[in-house]
Amino acid sequence: xNARGALGKYGEDLAVRLLEAAGMTVLQRNWRCGRTGEIxxxxxxxTAPGGPVLVICEVKTRRTGAYEHPMAAITxxxxxxxxxxxxxxxxxxxxxxxxxVRIDLVGVVLPRRGAPRAEHVQGVA
Length: 125
Description:
Layout: H1 3-21, E1 24-33, E2 37-45, E3 53-63, H2 76-92, E4 101-110, E5 117-121
Parallel strand pairs: 3-4
Antiparallel strand pairs: 1-2, 2-3, 4-5
């Protein structure tokens, strides 16, 4: 694994811990759909108002001083890709739960010193 892959895996590991601490159940990590792309984390949120929600979670990890903040990573093109991937995942796994589907983002910033900072934003797309 190269340095970029290790950084991404570290951020995803932090994101999984953050989502689980918020009461979510992680169903799958790094789900690939051919050349369409990959979903970083698929989770189930039983605490959502309106019933259980399937969460498609994109994780972006950056070091301090990177060109853009991780939260700027969800462009309209990326949002469309995540929606298509969510549709493929649902087709492969029996459809949406009663509460529907939500696309979230976890942004992780790794400072030069100190603990990493992770931010979870729900419903980004």
